[in-house]
Design goal:
This is WLM domain-containing protein. Pfam families: ubiquitin, WLM. One of its GO terms (molecular function) is proteasome binding. InterPro entries: Ubiquitin-like_dom (IPR000626), Ubiquitin-like_domsf (IPR029071), WLM_dom (IPR013536). This protein has 329 residues and is α/β, with parallel strands linked by helices. It is built from nine helices and seven strands. The strands form two sheets. Strands 2-1-4-3 form a four-stranded mixed sheet, with helices on one face. Strand 6 and strand 7 form a beta hairpin. The protein starts with a strand and ends in a 17-residue tail after the last helix. The C terminus is likely disordered.
């Protein structure tokens, strides 16, 4: 068997070798280990004309020829041992500075519950033929991820297939529509002139109204009671999130009435909004309780007017020109 003469260079030093052409690379690695103290696991060999190699590949199969120069890269056993020792010393120093009694906090990922995946809006889509669909998408996403809305959806097991919008010119007079008890909910989110978007809280009230249609189709007392409950729970959820807010009375507002969280009065008012008259009575005077009663009655009347308008502007359960509108149950 012929031999191959070549040179291995390592850190400025050359090692001329003359080996049989059937010498395997694993044998070459052992020879270089004896010469340089670099173990096979720590070295890399580079040469011109290199071919696919394995441990049992011979020199001639790997592309070795007479006169080829091989560049070797790697670390000696002594260097590797020194690095491991330095690393262990660093670990020891860190552990010495860290009290052993200190609890180690492991990162924890809380998986989404099955109910949170089920009771939600499964798809959100604006109308892309209308102006500024990106802003419309942002607004719909905000509604779909509103903490208070998600709260009532979990509480009442509401699932909606698609949340989308109503075009003012295509559905004049409508503010909301629930198709097939939650298959789709459509909301009027734009102004009539398409020069902006309606107020967020107004749209959210329409959304609560349409969510109630997931259970009741007609605007009967059952619907009114559930609708009031949903709006009350939304208001109470907002109040709970703002529970850390503090207010101070002033000389012009001695009882702090006008600084009280709006959700508190609105949540209480929704308990009375079932389509009938308010059970509260406005009383003269300026005590805190009397002022609160007047605020409550005014809020109830406002909410009742808004609900009456929403019923008129709701396409669910009514005959409309919308081809997707459901028939009255």
């Amino acid at each position: 068997m012929s031999s191959i003469s070549f040179t291995v260079s390592f850190r400025g030093q050359s090692y001329p070798l003359d080996l049989p052409s059937d010498t395997t690379l694993i044998n070459l690695q052992a020879i270089l280990h004896d010469l340089t103290s670099v173990p096979p696991s720590n070295k890399k060999l580079l040469w011109k004309g290199k071919k696919a190699v394995g441990d049992d590949t011979t020199l001639i199969q790997a592309g070795f020829k007479d006169g080829v120069r091989v560049q070797m890269l790697g670390s000696t056993e002594q260097e590797v041992g020194g690095l491991k020792a330095a690393e262990q010393q660093h670990i020891n120093r860190v552990q010495a500075r860290t009290p052993s009694s200190r609890p180690r906090i492991q990162p924890r990922v809380t998986p989404a519950s099955s109910s949170s995946l089920r009771f939600r809006f499964h798809k959100i889509a604006p109308l892309h033929h209308l102006p500024n669909p990106i802003s419309a998408q942002t607004l719909l996403d905000k509604l779909a991820n509103d903490p208070a809305i998600l709260h009532v959806m979990q509480q009442h097991s509401f699932s909606v297939g698609l949340l989308t919008e109503l075009a003012p010119h295509e559905h004049p007079g409508l503010l909301g529509l629930n198709v097939n008890s939650g298959q789709e909910i459509k909301l009027r989110i734009r102004t009539d002139r398409y020069d902006g978007f309606r107020l967020y809280n107004d749209i959210r009230k329409v959304l609560c109204h349409e969510l109630a249609h997931n259970v009741w189709g007609d605007h009967d007392e059952n619907f009114k009671q559930l609708n009031s409950q949903l709006n009350r729970e939304v208001a109470e959820h907002g109040r709970a999130r703002a529970a850390g807010t503090h207010t101070l009375a002033t000389s012009t507002d001695p009882y702090g009435i006008y600084q009280a969280p709006e959700q508190e009065v609105e949540a209480e008012a929704w308990s009375h909004v079932l389509g009938g008259n308010s059970s509260t009575t406005s009383i003269g005077g300026d005590s805190r309780d009397e002022m609160r009663k007047r605020m409550l009655e005014a809020t109830i009347k406002r909410l009742q007017r808004e609900e009456e308008q929403l019923e008129i502007s709701c396409g669910t359960g009514h005959c409309t020109d919308d081809k997707d509108a459901p028939t009255s149950p």
